[in-house]
Structure formats: structure tokens, C-alpha cells
Amino acid sequence: MQNTIPFGEILEAADKLPVHDQEELIDILSKRIIDRRREKLSKEVKEAQEEYGAGQGKACAPDDIIDEIMS
After folding, report:
1. For residues 51 and 57, is the Cβ–Cβ distance under 8 A?
2. Dmax of the chain from CA atoms?
3. What is the C-alpha separation between 67 and 37, in angstroms, rounded?
4. Where are the domains of the chain?
5. DSSP secondary structure string, 18-70?
6. CA distances, 17 to each of 7, 20, 27, 28 (Å)
7. pLDDT in 10s for each residue of the chain, 71 residues
8. Measuring CA to CA, how many Å separate 70 from each of 36, 51, 65?
């Protein structure tokens, strides 16, 4: 089971940090979010390549692809 801290408590704790530390926290969190998105995208690309290699790909209109990417 994962221990979680209520979001409000996290905000209160961040407010108590010096501004420099708050800026560093923002930078760290932003980089972690970017890394997670990159990992997710990499996984999705790998899955798509495997599906395509197995002949499971399907034709799509470009608008459908853009809609899926943007969702």
C-alpha cells in the first residue's frame, strides 16, 4: 500500500520553503513529468511497432490520427 499525503498538505509544505527551493521543486517536478510522458510515448510507439510488425495495423485518416494524438 502506498502512503499518500493530501494535496493541500503538500501545498502548505511548499509554501513554507524559501522561494529558491520552491523554484527548484517546480523544476524537478516539471522534469519528472516530462520523463513520464516520454516513457509513456516510447511505450506506445514500441507497442504500435509490434502491432504493425504482427500485421495488426489498420488504415486511418490523418484527421483521426491527429484527434487521437490530441486526446
Report:
1. yes
2. 56
3. 18
4. 7-70
5. -HHHHHHHHHHHHHHHHHHHHHHHHHHHHHHHHHHHTT------HHHHHHHHH
6. 16, 8, 14, 15
7. 577 999 999 999 999 999 999 999 999 999 999 999 999 999 999 998 898 888 887 778 999 889 988 98
8. 17, 21, 9
